[in-house]
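HOLO CASE FILE
Compound: FE2/S2 (inorganic) cluster
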Amino acid sequence: MTLAAFEMSRRHVLAATAAAPVRAGAAASPDAAKVSDSTPSERVSLTVNGKVYQSTIDPRTTLLDLLRDHLRLTGTKKGCDHGQCGACTVLSDGHRINSCLTLAVMQSGREITTIEGIGSAEKLHPLQQAFLDHDGYQCGYCTPGQICSTVGALDEVRRGVPSHVTTDITAPMKPTDVEMRERLSGNICRCGAYANIHKAIAQVVETQS
Ligand code: FES
Ligand code: FES
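Model generated. Tokens follow.
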């Protein structure tokens, strides 16, 4: 087949499929329009960084998409969107979660903290300062998740929540390097800045102890 003939037949196929009803030989049902018009909606109310937000959203909206696309809080990053990279980590009632793995409606009534609520350019959180001091990033895309996750992980240690590497759950828990590496293992850095990230965390642990 020549190129011109191929282009012709490709155009015909596209035109035919664009105009085709859903099922060959059947007229488009009026119900089809009804279905597309009836996108579900749900009222959600949550507190983000101390401010109450109320939105009417598609109940299938993830917390991550609500934060970024509806509330314009773009500090929280979308990496894999599948719970595997940790870029979207936020705190929900103080506990760290992957915001891509939870629906916004499931968080209704909760207090969410994003990187915007942890520190600001004018008043950096000690972890943010430590990341600067130790060059704990390259592209910085994973950094908000790393910092939110570290805030949550340090709180877990304070509350005595064991991890997979805790050897003695009866002893007072400490944010040792081994503990923190394990607890931060769900936060992936594609730039491989791990050595400096851990130096930054160690600096904060040292100043807090
Ligand atoms: Fe949520 Fe990767 S974007 S874990
Ligand atoms: Fe680039 Fe971590 S600094 S992904």
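CASE NOTES: The chain is about 40% helix and 10% strand. The helical segments are 3-19, 30-37, 63-70, 115-118, 126-133, 143-159, 177-183, 194-208.
CLOSED: yes
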